[in-house]
Automatic annotation (TrEMBL):
Organism phylogeny: Bacteria, Bacillati, Actinomycetota, Actinomycetes, Kitasatosporales
Primary site of residence: other
Keywords: Signal, Transport
Protein's recorded name: Peptide ABC transporter substrate-binding protein
Stored Gene3D superfamilies: Dipeptide-binding Protein, Domain 3 (3.10.105.10), Periplasmic binding protein-like II (3.40.190.10)
Residues passing through the membrane, by range: none
Length: 609
C-alpha cells in the first residue's frame, strides 16, 4: 500500500481492495490478445521496458490524450465555479508555479518537492503563525524576479473576491489569515486566526498559494476588486488564451503555443525558466477526444504517444506491448459519487430523506459494476475518504432492504412506479415536502464519452426501476455537466436545471494530500455541489483541521459515510495508460498533476545512464 507522508500524519494513498485492484487490472491486461490494425509508435521503437533510464535524446514532440469529452477551458490560476476539471489545474501548474506541489517520492507522496516555489514552511507561536521563504533565483519569463509581492497579489485577489473564488470555504482561506506580512522580497509570514494542525494547513491551505506576476497583471496598481474583474474578463475569453499577452508572463517550465476552442493545447518550453527541471522536449500536445473509443482508434494507429486503454479493451494490452507501448494503471487519490441537489424544488424534499438515500445506495451494486462494467479497473467507494481509511461498507448492495425502507416510509407501487401513499412528517410517512400521490422519479445528468459510464448509468436505471424508482438519465460533455451541477440556493434558477449529477468517469473528487472534507462536504463548501449541510459533518471536519490525531480523520470518514451526503459509486482508476516505451520520465501522480518537463525520448537500444 502506498502512503502519503506529511508533517505529523501518515495517510494511505489509493484504495485497499480485497484481491488487490492493481493486480486485477494487470491480470485482466494479460488475458487474451485480439488482432489490432495500426503501425504502433512511429520512429524509434524501443523494446526494453522501463519508465526511466536509457540514453536521452533532447527535443521531440509528445502527444498526450485528454480524457473523453474533456476540453481544457480555464487558464487563470484562480478557479471559478464550473471550471474545476483536473486538466485545467494541471495545465495552470505548468505555467504558474504553486508554492507547494505534491509529488511521489518512492512509495510516498510528499509536499517537499523541488518543483515547488517555496522552502518548507516554519510554524511558530503554538502553530498560529507560519513563515514561508521563496526559493532563490526564480524569474518570470520577462526576466523580472519572482518575489513575495507576487504571492501577496494572489492573496489580495482572493481575499477581496472570495465569493467568486471556487476554492473558498467560509472561515478557511483567506478568512483564517489575520495578516499577511511581507518581511522582504523572499520571505513572508501569515498570522492565523487560531492554531491549526500543521499537516492539514500545509497540505490543504498552503498548497493553494501561487505567485502571480503583479508587475505584468496589475501595472496600474488597481485595487484588488477592479484588477480581479479585469483578469476574469480575460479568463473567459477562451479563444484568446494562446494570443492574449496577459498569459505570456509565466514562471513555470512551459508556456502556451496553441489553445484551440476544440480543446487542443500545445505547450513549448519557457526558455527563461529557472527551476531545477528544465524541459527536454520541444513541444507537448494535449489532444482532446469525444469518446474513449475514438482515442483508442488513434492510439492503436500510433497517433498518440501517451494515451489510455478503455477498460473494455484491456485484454488487448499484450498486443500493445508488442507494438512498443508499456501499460501502466494510473491510480488516483480520489473517490467517486453521484451528487444530489438538495435545493431542487421537487427532488430536494425527496433527497433530504435519509431513508431514501439509504435505499438508493442499497440499490447500487458497486462490486458487480466494478467487476463487469469496469473490467476490474474500478473499486467500490465506501465513503468520503479513500477506501483504505474505512473498514466497512455501511450500505452494501441489498435490494430487499431498499424496498423495505421505501415501503416502511409510505411508498407503494402504482403502474410500476412508487407513489407516496402516506404523506407527512411522522414515523412511517414519506417525509416533509413530499405530497400525497407524488411519484418517486429522479433525473440524472451524467457525463458522456465513456462506454463504461453509459453502461453504469443504464444498470442504475434498471436496478432503481426494479424497486419502483424511476430514473431518467441524460448525458452531456463533461464541461457541460460541471457547469450545470454547481452549488445553488433555494429559488435560484440553476437549482431547477439538475437533480442528480455524475462527473466521475475518471473519479469525481481528487483530494489534496490530506483527504479531509472541507472542500466537498462542509456547509457552503466550494465543491459541495449539492449543497449538503449538516452540523455534525461540519463538526467532524473542523476536528481534522485543528487536531493532528489520525483518529479525527477516521471518525469523519466513518460518520459521513453513514450520513450519505452523496451516493457512492465505483471509483475507477484515472486511466490505464499506454505509453510509447521510448518516452521516459513520466510520473503518474495520484493527484493528477503533470510534469512533462521531465519527459524525454531515448535512443533505440541505448544503455541506461
Amino acid at each position: 500500500m502506498r502512503r502519503v507522508v506529511l508533517v505529523g500524519r501518515v495517510v494511505p494513498v489509493g484504495r485497499v481492495v480485497p484481491g488487490g485492484r492493481v493486480g486485477r487490472v494487470l491480470a485482466a491486461a494479460l488475458i487474451g490478445v485480439a488482432a489490432l490494425v495500426g503501425c504502433g509508435p512511429p520512429g524509434n521503437v524501443v523494446t526494453e521496458l522501463g519508465a526511466t533510464g536509457g540514453v536521452p535524446v533532447e527535443g521531440g514532440t509528445a502527444t498526450m490524450a485528454l480524457p473523453p469529452a474533456s476540453t481544457p477551458n480555464w487558464i487563470f490560476p484562480i478557479g471559478a465555479p464550473g471550471y474545476l476539471a483536473s486538466y485545467n489545474s494541471a495545465i495552470q501548474d505548468l505555467l504558474f508555479l504553486r508554492l507547494y506541489l505534491p509529488e511521489k517520492k518512492g512509495d510516498a507522496l510528499t509536499l517537499d518537492s523541488p518543483r515547488g516555489l517555496a522552502e518548507k514552511p516554519r510554524y511558530g507561536d503554538g502553530n498560529d503563525t507560519v513563515t514561508i521563504t521563496l526559493k532563490k533565483g526564480y524569474r518570470w519569463s520577462d526576466g523580472r524576479p519572482v518575489t513575495t509581492r507576487d504571492v501577496k497579489f494572489w492573496f489580495d485577489l482572493i481575499k477581496a473576491n472570495k465569493e467568486e473564488w471556487a476554492g473558498y470555504s467560509p472561515k478557511l482561506m483567506p478568512d483564517d489569515v489575520k495578516e499577511f506580512e511581507v518581511l522582504d522580497n523572499q520571505t513572508f509570514r501569515l498570522r492565523l486566526d487560531r492554531a491549526y494542525n500543521p499537516t492539514w494547513f500545509t497540505a490543504n491551505e498552503l498548497q493553494d498559494f501561487v505567485a502571480l506576476p503583479v508587475h505584468a497583471w496589475n501595472p496600474r496598481h488597481e485595487n484588488p476588486r477592479r484588477a480581479f474583474a479585469r483578469l476574469m474578463r480575460h479568463a473567459r475569453q477562451f479563444s484568446a488564451f494562446a494570443t492574449d499577452p496577459l498569459w505570456k508572463t509565466v514562471d513555470g517550465p512551459w508556456r502556451i503555443a496553441k489553445w484551440t476552442t476544440s480543446g487542443q493545447v500545445e505547450l513549448i518550453p519557457n526558455t527563461h525558466y529557472s527551476g531545477p527541471d528544465k524541459p527536454h522536449l520541444d513541444r507537448v500536445v494535449l489532444k482532446p477526444f469525444t469518446t474513449a473509443d475514438s482515442e483508442f482508434n488513434v492510439l492503436r494507429a500510433g497517433g498518440v504517444d501517451y494515451g489510455y486503454l478503455p477498460p473494455s479493451v484491456m485484454a488487448q494490452s499484450a498486443k500493445f506491448r508488442e507494438m512498443g507501448y508499456r501499460i501502466d494503471p494510473w491510480e488516483g487519490w480520489a473517490i467517486t459519487y453521484i451528487v444530489l441537489n438538495y435545493h431542487h424544488p421537487t427532488a430536494g424534499p425527496l433527497l433530504r430523506q435519509t431513508y431514501l438515500r439509504q435505499a438508493l445506495q442499497h440499490l447500487i451494486d458497486q462490486k458487480a459494476i466494478s467487476r463487469v462494467i469496469w473490467h476490474g479497473s474500478a473499486a467500490p467507494t465506501l465513503g468520503p475518504v479513500p477506501a483504505g481509511l474505512l473498514d466497512a461498507d455501511p450500505y452494501p448492495y441489498d435490494p430487499k432492504r431498499a424496498k423495505a425502507l421505501l415501503a416502511g416510509h409510505g411508498w407503494a407501487a402504482r403502474d410500476g412506479v412508487l407513489r407516496c401513499v402516506r404523506a407527512g412528517r411522522g414515523a412511517g410517512a414519506c417525509g416533509a415536502g413530499i405530497e400525497e400521490g407524488q411519484e418517486l422519479r429522479l433525473s440524472l445528468l451524467s457525463q458522456s464519452g465513456s462506454t463504461e459510464t453509459s453502461n453504469t448509468m443504464q444498470v442504475l436505471k434498471s436496478e432503481f426501476g426494479k424497486a419502483g424508482v424511476a430514473l431518467d438519465v441524460r448525458q452531456q460533455p463533461l464541461n457541460t455537466v460541471l457547469g450545470t451541477t454547481v452549488p445553488c440556493k433555494t429559488g435560484d434558477p440553476v437549482c431547477s436545471a439538475w437533480q442528480l449529477g455524475f462527473f466521475g468517469t475518471q473519479g469525481s473528487w481528487y483530494f489534496p494530500p490530506d483527504p479531509s472534507g472541507e472542500q466537498i462536504f462542509a456547509s457552503n463548501a466550494p465543491s459541495n455541489m449539492g449543497s449538503w449541510s449538516d452540523p455534525r459533518t461540519d463538526e467532524l471536519i473542523r476536528a481534522t483541521e485543528y487536531s493532528d490525531d489520525p483518529a479525527a480523520l477516521r471518525a469523519y470518514g466513518r460518520e459521513v459515510a453513514r450520513r450519505l451526503p452523496v451516493l457512492w459509486t465505483p471509483n475507477p482508476a484515472y486511466q490505464v495508460s499506454a505509453l510509447r516505451n521510448d518516452l521516459r520520465g513520466v510520473e503518474q501522480n495520484p493527484t493528477l498533476s503533470l510534469t512533462p518537463q521531465d519527459w524525454y525520448y531515448v535512443k533505440k537500444g541505448g544503455a541506461g545512464r
